[in-house]
Amino acid sequence: MSDTQMLNMSAVEMARAVRDRSLSARKLAEAALNRAETVGRSLNAVTQVLADSALASADAVDFAVSRGEDPGPLAGVPMVLKDNICTREGYTTCGCRFLERYRSPFDATCVERLRGAGAVIIAKANLDEFAMGGSGENSAFGATRNPWDVSRVPGGSSSGSAACVAAGIAPIALGSDTGGSIRQPAGFCGITGLKPTYGRVSRWGLVAFASSLDQLGPLARNAQDAAVALSVISGEDPRDSTCARVAREDFADAITRADRDNQPRIIGVARQGRGSGNHPSVNLAIEQAMALYRDAGFELVDVDLHAGDEAIAAYYIIAAAEASSNLARFDGVRYGRRAELSPGEGLSDLYTRSRTEGFGPEVQRRIMLGTYVLSSGYYDAYYNTALKARRVIKNAFDAIFARGCRAVLLPSSPGPAFKLGEKNNDPLAMYLEDIYTVSVNLAGLPAITIPAGIASVEGKDLPVGVQLIGPALSEASLLRLASVFESRSSFHLRRPPG
Ligand code: GLN
Q1: What are the extents of the domains in the chain?
Q2: What pLDDT shows up at residue 258?
Q3: What parts of the chain have a pLDDT lower than 50?
Q4: CATH class for domain 3-256?
């Protein structure tokens, strides 16, 4: 089997082949590492390739199999982690100069669980600095490119995770989603991205951006692989007190047993997602998704989310407020880079200079915005008002689900991938790109992006994604809906050229 054929297998197929010894984890790891070094580097999708530790893990998997042991459901599967997830191996840079040489003394809970399930971590993925951004262009290590068209962004902030999966470097990557950072890049790269319910996956070892919104989740080439990854990483963790106290579930099994699906067969279509502000390909993808589900026996009803631009405003106030507090720990003393002081300079110069030199412009903008909205004179006008808006948004979703809707259909972004540099100098235009994703985080809900269309833009094929949003802890139901979509379409099988 050629390297490309091997890497085109799904994660489930890879693990099966490794477990029955028809493929060695080492061969898989070598192929993935090689592609990460070549394709991954040329897309600037990886911050580091972890060759030594990956080969050692792969050998350990092969050894376990040879002794008749079962390494787990991800046996030998090459994986990529967004570089804001702490790993003992290599650095955890967060796409930031401050942490360029930061070595975590521990593995994040999700990393421990992945290793425990036999996964082989081959690389850390590029990202917008501290996950702040929607294009991958805010990384201190340069922009990631979209494998479908290298003059375009792959989306963000999990830019490298999405690009690696789409480019066939690894079948699954982990990303984090604070306001859309798994779902929007999944849409731009033609893959599946699952943002779990807040609390479903432990955040221990995920470098915090906005703690009440952050959630880790998988990006994969199909629903089944996303389901396996979620089953492994989810579940209670005593080290994260915000973790939901629910039993671990086998989400892959939930997909295979789709015939036993007894969930409601009504899907809400959000009016807010069908505006004239969308690229025509997005409206077409929504129409086609509606037709697909109707043919599959679902009833489609119009629903109202009661928030559009307000969600963006509330999100950027709350996320910035929390970020300004979380990022106070980067002071030049405790973590990472420390500024050189000139004679006569003191401690406050150390803080100011380290932070000025260490953080990029977008992170500084958010810290200033967050500090402002939390300041005593403006707290009520901005932060408190944003919290009220958050409640209204949550109530609107609750009302829709209480009426019997199983999920809400919405685009994952207003258009397909935009050009590198197109929105980078206009923060507000960039923020508006998040219009369809942020309310999900504000309400703490799970949502999945499904590849649902191809737009032809300037002679290039570009993927278009749609999202399905469900009530809290409804991941199994969303994954089933995604697999219904896959069984009636072929967008998830399309690969970028090259
Ligand atoms: N684009 C959004 C932002 O810039 C979302 C980021 C995220 O989900 N990490 O904040």
Answers
A1: 3-256, 266-307+392-447+454-493, 313-380
A2: 66
A3: none
A4: alpha beta
